[in-house]
Design a protein that fits this description.
Layout (H helix, E strand, L loop, with lengths): L1 H8 L8 E4 L5 E11 L2 E6 L2 E6 L5 E4 L3 H23 L11 H25 L5 E3 L4 H9 L11 E3 L3
Antiparallel strand pairs: 1-2, 1-5, 2-3, 2-7, 3-4, 5-6
Length: 162
């Protein structure tokens, strides 16, 4: 019974955004895994796919970068602030900007640092994993073992069956 609960709670890496870095630390691919073979990781992002041989992989990181979360939160803060400012501004009232556009701009400026702060706090709690491959088979097997239902020692072709 406990085994079933663990298996059900384990999230598949096929559903996780992955960033792949070469042996020099340069990002060479990113996206969601679609297939993994004995020596290649296949990723798709949008409608573009790419494959990377494990011998060219230095590290693999899960989830998006911290900067991505901060940027998205900042954009949400700016747009939310602008909408609220445009709605609540009453031109001509005391302590109110001269137009709805000025109200939107003022609250958008306030929303930017609020969104950035929320994104920064959220990035601290993000559970990112880093797999060190360094072009070596053992590192590759450790990464492959993270995929539920795979046997890294018997890898011939493990395909995402959706």
């Amino acid at each position: 019974m406990a085994f079933n609960v663990v298996a059900q709670n384990q999230k598949s890496l096929y559903d996780t955004f992955i960033r792949v870095y070469d042996l020099n630390g340069k990002k060479i691919a990113k996206g969601k895994p679609t297939q993994i073979t004995h020596n290649t990781l296949y990723l798709v992002r949008g409608n573009k796919g790419t494959g990377v041989n494990y011998k060219n992989i230095g590290t693999i990181k899960t989830k998006r970068s911290r900067g991505h979360g901060i940027l998205v939160s900042t954009l949400i803060g700016v747009s939310s602030g602008a909408v609220v400012g445009a709605i609540v501004t009453e031109p001509g009232k005391l302590l109110s900007p001269g137009s709805k556009g000025e109200g939107a701009l003022a609250t958008a400026i306030i929303g930017a640092p609020v969104g950035a702060t929320i994104g920064s706090i959220g990035s601290v709690f993000k559970k990112e994993e880093t797999f060190i491959i360094n072009g070596e088979l053992e590192g590759w097997k450790a990464f492959v073992a993270r995929f539920p239902g795979t046997n890294p020692d018997g890898l011939l072709s493990l395909k995402n069956e959706y």
